[in-house]
Every structure is written in C-alpha cells, then in structure tokens.
Specification:
41% helix; Rossmann fold; two-stranded parallel ribbon; 237 residues; 10 helices; alpha/beta; globular
Amino acid sequence: MTPAARGLFIAGTDTGCGKSFVTATIAASLATSGTTVSVRKPLLTGLDEPSTPANPLDHELLAMASGEPDPKVVSPIRFGPPMSPHLAAEKAGEEIDLASIASGLKEEMSTVPDRVMLVEGIGGLLVPITRTSSVADLAVEMGLPLIIAARPGLGTINHCLLTLEAARSRGLEVRAVVLSQWPDDPSEIELDNRKTVEELGNVKVMTVPHVAELTQDAFAKAAAGIDLGALTSPAVR
C-alpha cells in the first residue's frame, strides 16, 4: 500500500443503526471538497427489498453520495434475502472468501494513492460472514481505522461499549463513535448517551443529523458534526 493511501472501516453496533447514513455523510463531504473517495460495501443482503427514491438500497445510497455511477461497483457481492451474509450465501449455494475480499480491496486502494476508501461492514461488528469469520475479521484483515455507527437513543450505551470492547480486543483502532440520526433538539437521554459513551468508552463521539433530502449536497452539509481531519489522518499504516 502506498504511504498516501487512506481509508476507514465503518462498522455498526447492530443492523439498522445508521451505518450507511454515516458512510454516505463522510463520502459526500470528502467528494464535494475535492477529495477522491471510493465507497465499498463488499457484502450486501436484502436486494429483494423494494428500493424507492425516499428509501434506496444501501449500495444505491452510497453510490449517490460518493459519485460512483454504478451501485454494483459499491457492492460486488449481493444477495436477495435480508439476512446475515453467511446464511444468505448458504441459501444461494455460494461461498464467501473473506481473504479474497480483503486482498481485492487492498489492491484497489493501492491503485490511487491519494484516494480515501471507505469500507462499510454489514450488520454489527460480530455478524458472521461465514461460519468461521465475522465482520470484525474483515476489519482486521483490512487494517483500517474503525468508525462505529450507533443510534442516539436508549440502549446505545451498552451497544457502543460492547462494540468498542470487541473491536479493541482484536487490536482495531477506533477513531470515533458516530451517532446517526442525531435530532435537532436532543433529549436529556440522548445528550447523556453521547457524554457517557465518550467518557466510559474513552472515544470521540460525533453526530450525524437526519437527512431529509437524499442528495450528495445534503449529506455533505450533514457532516458539520464530524471532524473529518481526525478521522482520515494520519495516513493508514
């Protein structure tokens, strides 16, 4: 990997916690600032779910935010049923090769030295990719700093601290927790959640607001609560 290559791995506390919104926000902000950015969500399930302009599938949302014209490039391995990738692959009669996924992403990173690559996981950090590997294993293989996406509401303290513990026990560097769908007028619980996760987790906690208009510009503006410099520097080792 060239010294100038940079990247982030975006994981989540669980399914539906806002990983793709966090990833899209970072991608759009980088893209509109003139940074070359690529987003990859190498594994995608739920392709059978309906896609609408107001609720696009993850790879469609990420393609829009990053400026990638073909959503299939964002997610090359796709399955129809909305389920864990290990089970979706088994039902499709296919095998997922984690090492091959990681090596392909690393090779792609090396081809454009000044690019930032955002790699988004699927589900929570310990979701199985195969019967013997998880999203955490992919993050370890990639060797990228980790961003943990989480909900702002009740229950998120436990989810965040467990995910932080799981990540750090594997030697992963956690750059920040990002609370997705952060309200304009946060409640006492939401404000305390942010403070408590930051203190008990010994981690920076940033926020991404709800984005009503799903456009690149709207996501870029939503990055006001994210310190992109702290997330993307220094260069990935």
